[in-house]
Design goal:
Its main location: membrane. The chain is mainly alpha-helical. It has helices at about 1-30, 35-40, 45-55, 60-75, 90-125, 130-140, 145-155, 175-215, 215-225, 230-240, 240-255, 260-265, 270-280, 285-310. Helix 1 (about 1-30) runs antiparallel to helix 14 (about 285-310) and helix 6 packs across helix 8. The termini are close together.
């Protein structure tokens, strides 16, 4: 067991380091002049551009910028945003504070709904209910997130809030009224994420359950007279949970990475919208910090999923 854990830990650390290095190099080999963009003046003087390059260390050799970047990261410093001159850490904390409640709600709802519907469809295979649920899931799975979001935006604009996370014209609200206001603005983004992720979860859980229900030990359990509910809960679902864990891990990773389109469509001021704005402004420190946090989160979630695999099925360590 220790060898398996050490291997997965080493793999996760190496993955983060490689992603960190690529993250640094990528934004510096792309075409365009960041200093000119910084000046926000179409015909900035050479003196202004040089002053900005010195201020942000862009005049240093690439290897020296990389060493300085690693040193700053070791101290928890992700640099200063080119766009608003604020620490990147502060910008990301504020953005993540808006993203996590919205995306977490959508992911949790999709996991619960997708698992229940997937198990029901597998157990009721071939029935009318199974056909309706499976075909509906296939249709929603085929929809892209941006298409589904725009459809919901067209259908419910004017009925539900469709932009931002609060009403800018509302009078002074109590904490409870503020909570309800944010919850109403969260409905359409959460529904978009839930519909997209639920369809994928249904198809994966149904497929895994069907494969498990056809195993010999399931027939043996039935022959012993075990109740159907116990067979499904204690035998079938447990052994079918490996692909489900994979799906949950990928969904949790989307908490910080998969919400970009949803946040742009609904003008939700989260990390996805912040990265979108950073791309338009060529805000390298913000992009580096955002993608680094996304990478670490995805690697960490998959690392936890690998440990759960071992817990659910020790054969994966062989």
């Amino acid at each position: 067991m220790r060898g398996y854990i050490w291997r997965r830990t080493l793999f996760a650390v190496v993955t983060v380091f490689l992603a960190l290095t690529l993250n640094f190099v990528l934004f510096r080999v792309l075409p365009g002049d960041a200093a000119t963009r910084l000046s926000r003046v179409p015909n900035a003087s050479p003196e202004m551009v040089q002053a900005l390059e010195r201020q942000f260390g862009l005049d240093l050799p690439l290897w020296e910028q990389y060493v300085r970047y690693l040193q700053q990261l070791a101290h928890g410093n992700m640099g200063i945003s080119f766009a608003n001159r604020q620490p990147v850490v502060d910008n990301l904390l504020e953005a993540f504070g808006n993203t996590i409640p919205m995306v977490t709600t959508g992911v949790l709802m999709s996991i619960v709904l997708g698992t229940l519907i997937g198990v029901f469809s597998a157990v009721r295979r071939g029935t009318v209910g199974d056909h309706i649920l499976t075909n509906t899931s296939v249709v929603f799975y085929a929809f892209s997130t941006q298409f589904l979001g725009i459809v919901l935006l067209i259908l419910f604009a004017g009925i539900l809030p469709s932009a931002g996370m609060s009403d800018p014209f509302a009078a002074i609200l109590s904490p409870w009224e503020q909570f309800l206001d944010v919850a109403r603005h969260m409905i359409l983004p959460v529904v978009t994420l839930t519909l997209t992720l639920t369809a994928e979860t249904v198809l994966i859980v149904r497929s895994a359950m069907l494969e498990t229900l056809g195993e010999d030990y399931i027939f043996t359990a039935r022959a012993k007279g075990l109740r159907r509910g116990r067979i499904i809960r204690s035998h079938a679902f447990r052994n079918a949970s490996l692909p489900t864990v994979t799906q949950i891990a990928l969904s949790l990773g989307s908490i910080v990475s998969g919400s970009i389109l949803v946040e742009v469509i609904f003008s939700w001021p989260g990390v996805g919208r912040a990265l979108y704005d950073a791309v338009l402004q060529r805000d390298f420190p913000m992009l580096q910090g955002g993608f680094l946090v996304i990478t670490i989160t995805v690697v960490l979630v998959n690392y936890i999923a690998d440990l759960l695999y071992f817990r659910l099925d020790p054969r994966v360590s062989r």
